[in-house]
Specification:
Rossmann fold; Glycosyltransferase; transferase activity; six-stranded parallel beta sheet; 13 helices; alpha/beta
Length: 374
């Protein structure tokens, strides 16, 4: 029996994206029922693997005019792949995906990883007119496509209320998928040589600069501490701002890239870290979500400092895993440091909350159901 062809397409996500490749792709491969085709951003050529093929859709700067042609490139790739199911991860590809559905007859799944319209409204540095135009286009595309999409995947539980008109959905969260680390769960942190980590996407609204300013102050109290920065700053002006800030400060160990950091490097960075910073600003486009890095900390038995948030507090308290910090308030450093060094982290091992296994079952069941339909 020939394997069922599945395509997973994005524009700016790397080919080995944590969700498309490590979660969706590897889960599908384990069944031995599918041929997986990952379509996405290519900063370097990826070698095809057993049951997984990689296809470059876009490789230039995000503001390049060639980005307008990604729909045509997607259709060209789909004509070669001829998938039975296409999963798209951005509104940008929906028009081409709908046309391809008519031509090739596949099932179409829209994996909503972001509320793009809300992000532009709250997070974008663009002027008001550009924001209105951008959100209008996104809403038009998503609304016009809705009736023709076979199923929706929500990456966050909050999307149920943010997209109340969508009923045919499955919630599949970004929980940890990776090696299970055997560690001594309960620990206290030593005051000397404490190593902090700030990783992943770096942006103003993610609190990245807040974290650097906060750590400057913390380092004055504890001069043998260091902060490793391993991240991707897509906005050039903000990237240069971060780079300038860490210059001539040896306690910052920084890799601030214009391109996504390979996920394996991110996971490896946890291994030599004592505390992970989750400094996200609490705006409406962020606060209802649960960061994937929080699940990674739980799974890898790493303590974390996080912005005040009720949902995150619940998970942190459940396992004694983290400490709440207002990264914009530098006046409470003594109180925060006392809590960090007196806390006994991880009174018990994280259970199913953190791991991909529960989400994997839902995902594979959905794909099996869709691939069985004629």
């Amino acid at each position: 029996m020939l394997p069922v062809k599945i395509a997973i397409a994005s524009v700016l996500k790397p080919l080995k994206d944590p969700r498309s490749y490590y979660k969706f792709g590897l889960s599908l491969r384990e069944t031995n029922k599918y041929q997986i085709n990952i379509i996405g951003f290519c900063s370097k050529k990826e070698t095809d693997e057993n049951s997984i093929k990689f296809h470059s859709l876009f490789y230039k700067k995000r503001n390049s005019f060639s980005r307008l042609k990604v729909g045509f490139r997607l259709l060209k790739l789909l004509s070669k792949i001829k998938p039975k199911i296409l999963i798209v991860t951005t509104y940008e590809l929906l028009p081409a995906a709908l046309l391809g559905k008519v031509i090739f007859g596949y099932k179409l799944v829209y994996d909503i990883q972001e509320n793009y319209a809300l992000n532009i409204t709250l997070n974008s540095p663009k002027n008001k007119l550009s924001k209105l135009l951008g959100t209008g286009i996104i809403k038009l595309i998503e609304f016009g496509s809705r009736a023709f999409i076979d199923h929706f995947i929500f990456a966050e539980k909050c999307y149920v209320s943010e997209f109340p008109e969508i009923n045919n959905h499955t919630i599949i969260e970004n929980k940890y998928q990776g090696p299970i680390v055997k560690a001594k769960y309960t620990f206290k942190l030593e005051r000397s040589n404490l190593k902090f980590l700030l990783c992943g996407t770096l942006a103003e609204v993610y609190g990245s600069m807040d974290a650097l300013l906060w750590f400057d102050k913390f380092h004055k109290h504890f001069p043998d501490t260091s902060l490793k920065i391993l991240g991707h700053a897509p906005l050039e002006s903000f990237r240069l701002k971060l780079i300038k800030h860490v210059e001539d400060k040896p306690y910052f160990k920084s890799t601030i890239s214009s391109e996504p950091i390979p996920y394996e490097l991110i996971l490896n960075s946890y291994l030599t870290t004592d505390l992970v910073l989750l400094p996200y600003q609490q705006v409406k486009s962020i606060s209802p979500k649960i960061p994937g890095k929080l699940y990674e900390c739980l799974a890898l038995n790493k303590g974390f400092l996080f912005s005040p948030n009720t949902q995150w507090q619940f998970l942190a308290n459940k396992y004694n895993a983290g400490v709440t910090v207002n990264f914009q308030d530098l006046s409470k450093m003594e109180m925060i440091s006392k809590e960090i060094f007196s806390k006994v982290f991880y009174s018990e091992a994280p259970k199913i909350d953190a791991y991909w296994a529960s989400e994997e079952l839902k995902f594979l069941s959905l794909i099996d159901r869709l691939s069985s339909k004629t």
